[in-house]
Design brief:
alpha/beta
Length: 180
């Protein structure tokens, strides 16, 4: 797929803690950066009972409730993979786009490999914070989303909902790409 068209997909997740394996990925939100209304969302059953209280407080999730209402992890990851394949088609190459992409990509990569055997995004991710820092020649501390919102005039997302955050990230990504 050397000449494949790059399809930028904004991905955001919510988790019960800082690292995959020990903590659970609780929700996935994703959208095309070129068409945020084309999107994906799911909530997953926890894979661990471990959590950081502040993480659950921020997300508003309950591990007990997600054990009942969340999708089985393998089903959720399969559904996400199918959605990625549908939006990229036969000639597209999915590119993972995230705000603080190393964090979100680590969970997505871990879950794809553990539950499906491979990651359709491959081994890379495009980080919006690093992109902004490079384009604006700014400091790392100026890459906080609140600072980017102010500088780019992009409305911020409300709360920690993975889909709303993925759409917000897509809007930030698109605004950065228009900078000269």
């Amino acid at each position: 797929m050397k000449n494949a068209k790059e399809i930028y997909i904004s991905v955001d997740i919510e988790t019960s803690g800082p690292v995959p394996g020990k903590f659970s990925m609780l929700s996935i939100g994703a959208c095309l950066t070129s068409a945020p209304e084309v999107n994906f969302y799911c909530e997953l059953k926890p894979t661990s009972n471990q959590f950081v209280p502040a993480a659950l407080e921020v997300t508003g999730f309950s591990l007990d409730k997600l054990q009942i209402s969340g999708q089985p992890v393998e089903n959720a990851m399969q559904a996400f993979k199918v959605w990625i394949e549908e939006v990229t088609g036969d000639s597209g190459n999915p590119v993972f786009v995230g705000l603080n992409a190393p964090f979100d990509w680590a969970f997505i990569n871990y879950y794809f490999h553990v539950y499906l055997g491979d990651n359709p995004f491959g081994f890379t991710a495009l980080d919006i914070k690093a992109l902004y820092m490079g384009v604006r020649n700014t400091s790392w501390s100026d890459t906080r989303s609140s600072k980017m919102v102010e500088a780019l005039g992009v409305p911020s997302a409300d709360g920690h909902n993975a889909l709303k955050d993925a759409i917000f990230q897509a809007n930030l990504f698109n605004a950065i790409r228009t900078l000269k």
